[in-house]
Each structure stands twice: as C-alpha cells, then as structure tokens.
Design brief:
By secondary structure, this protein is of the alpha/beta class. The protein is built from five helices and eight strands, in the order E-E-H-E-H-E-E-H-H-E-H-E-E. Strand 7 and strand 8 form a beta hairpin. Helix 4 packs across helix 5. This is Histidine phosphatase family protein.
Length: 190
C-alpha cells in the first residue's frame, strides 16, 4: 500500500471521569448512563505516534462531550472540528426489574445484549438502525479519505467497531487495530 493511498483513522474518546464502582440500582444505572454522556474526560498524557499530526487539518467527531473534548485535546484549536450526530455512540437503555443492586457491568451487559437481540429498544434507536447509521458514517469517511487522502474520526467504541466493519466490506484494510481501549487508534487504508 503506497504512502499516498487514502487512510482513515478511527479514535475512541478518552476515559470519562465518572465513578463506576459499587453496586447500582436500576435507577442509579440509568443515571450513570446519563452522567457518562456528559462527563468530562481524563487528560491525554501521550498522543499516539500512529497519527500523521502534520497532515490532519479536519477532524470529524461525535456530538457527545467526551468525543469533542478528546478531539480538542489531541488536535488542538487549529484543526477544523466537524461535529455530526451520525458519529454518536449506539444508544443504550438500562433494562431490568427495579429490584436489588448489582455491579454496573451487570446492568450494562444485560441491557446491551438484549438490545442487540432486539428486545431492549423501546424509545431508542434499534440495533438495525444503529448498524445502518454506522454504514452511513463509514461511507462519509471513505468519501472524505478518497477525496482528500485522509479522514479522521473521534467517536466511540461500538460505533467505531461497526464503522470499521463497514469499511472492510468496502475493501478497506485494517493496517493497525487500536481495539476499543480509550484513545485507541485504528488505521485503515485502501
């Protein structure tokens, strides 16, 4: 793959500053989701060596505060930041009976698994709709990269994973998989 080939960089936001320890009731778990969506993020100490910082003039990002804050920390004020709701995280709604308290991960995994199965999508985007939105986001990034040689997105774990899958179906190759860790950078090339 040549140096001049188009590239896409998918970056997950930095770690939100929010307490997730202890046991949560259903209501507390639902409140956690709301708080997570507006939480500030930890300062990024080390920027990825895999990003071509000198070439990045425009960055796409989710409209959620954690993605915007991460993009600003990584790229500074000199970069054009394009916020777009297409890049927001897949929605999650806490499911379960309001009985007892459990670790937050129990509420999240149970709720997400049921959502993936189509059983927990009342009043939120369905999994099918979310996958279609991720495919739309992938096409937008591919068009940008093919026109300008580069596209950079700062978004979220689930969204980035499904954008990556959609890009692979379009013939993009994963050159570096940053996983779903905080500030993980996945690089794709054509």
């Amino acid at each position: 793959m040549s140096e001049n080939a188009p590239h896409i960089y998918l970056i997950r936001h930095a770690r939100p500053i929010i307490n997730r320890s202890g046991l949560f009731s259903k209501a507390a778990a639902a409140q956690y989701i709301q708080d997570y969506n507006v939480a500030e993020v930890e300062e990024i100490i080390e920027k990825s060596e895999h990003l071509p910082m000198d070439r990045i003039k425009k960055v796409f990002c989710s409209t959620l505060p954690r993605a915007k804050a991460t993009a600003k920390m990584l790229f500074g004020e000199g970069v054009e930041l394009i916020e777009d709701a297409t890049f927001r995280e897949f929605e999650n709604r806490i499911w379960g009976l309001p009985l007892g308290k459990f670790p937050l991960i129990w509420w999240q995994v149970t709720s997400r698994a049921l959502w993936l199965l189509g059983l927990n999508q009342k009043d939120i985007e369905s999994f099918k709709q979310a996958k279609a939105r991720a495919a739309q986001a992938a096409q937008h990034l591919a068009t940008e990269a093919e026109a300008h040689g580069l596209a950079v997105l700062v978004a979220h774990g689930f969204l980035n994973e499904f954008v990556k899958r959609a890009l692979r179906r379009q013939g993009w190759k994963v050159l570096r998989d940053g996983g779903r860790g905080y500030v993980g950078v996945t690089q794709l090339g054509k």
